[in-house]
Design brief:
By secondary structure, the protein is mostly helical. The chain has one domain. Helices cover about 50% and strands about 0% of the residues.
Length: about 60
């Protein structure tokens, strides 16, 4: 989502007051995102927090509603 908004990690850090090192660690699966961070990042990225929390979620096509 950050890249879709053409934001650098530094720019997102400034928008959210989340340290750039933490953003990098989240993106590299070194730190859990967490609900509170997801809310803050979602506001900055103008999306629902679930988009960030469940970014890798896949449902097999034959099981989709």
């Amino acid at each position: 989502m950050r890249e879709l908004h053409e934001l650098s990690q530094n720019e997102l850090s400034k928008l959210t007051d989340i340290p750039m090192a933490t953003i990098s660690a989240i993106e590299n699966d070194q730190v859990n995102l967490g609900i509170e961070r997801a809310k803050v990042l979602a506001r900055a990225l103008k999306c629902h927090p679930a988009v960030l929390v469940f970014s890798g979620w896949e449902v097999p096509l034959d099981e989709a509603a």
